[in-house]
Amino acid sequence: MSQETQNHHQSVLSFDGVDDFILFSQVFDRVTDKISLEFWANGANRLADQTGLLRAASSECNRIFSIHLPWTNHIYWDAGNQTGFDRIHKGTQEREYKDTWNHWAFVKDSTTGEMFIYRNGELWQSGTGHQRSLIRVETFTIGCFWDSYKHWAGLLSEFRIWNIALTPERIQQNMNTRLTGKEAGLAAYWPLNEGGGTVAKDKTGNGYDGTINGAVWQTTELPVKPQARQSLETSLGTGLQDYAYWYRWKQSLPQSSDSQSFRRGRIWS
């Protein structure tokens, strides 16, 4: 994370490490040869040494992809299909994942056999010879390895799944900003900033909304720029529309009605 990055108070989702998770029950088949998972995570001080941050499985409960953050002093990235999964991992220390925000990106390109883990935009671990492609996902959970097994504790925000292999340059470009949901290659996007309710909304429009079980909303500082409420272009467009409305209204008046007032609001010069 660059030193220039500023923190902003925003809503994030908090997991207690006991029984909290998000369940996605929709069929997910938008990734096959390439996948990238990225998110901001702030592991709680009470985070156990064996946890599952997420797991995706097939209809036969085969592991399609999963992340352990951590598991017995290691961080694991698994991705594969019904024949088995490929894995890279690396030993870690608590200071690398606890009590502070870190951006993580987990990438696999089965066409080249490469797998990567990036921490705060920098390469953290990699591996080659991993050519198992991914298959259709039937169930997907965030916050645990399974519904009631090895729950994760801490704060999460800006969870994204791509069907492309992100480069470090692309990761660094977007890690500190909110997305629109319309970016090329973006398969699912949960900002996790709703601030209320029990639905994690997928902002891509692909319909992968998740059901929040137990996790609660919390406002805290996050090194991600909040989205602007309204752009200058939008405002200018509205002004031009108002001017056109005013012109049509004035042209429709009788010639003797020039002195009537117009009360519609904004007219931009």
From TrEMBL:
Top-level taxonomic group: Bacteria
Leader sequence segment: none
UniProt-recorded name of the protein: Cyanobactin biosynthesis PatC/TenC/TruC family protein
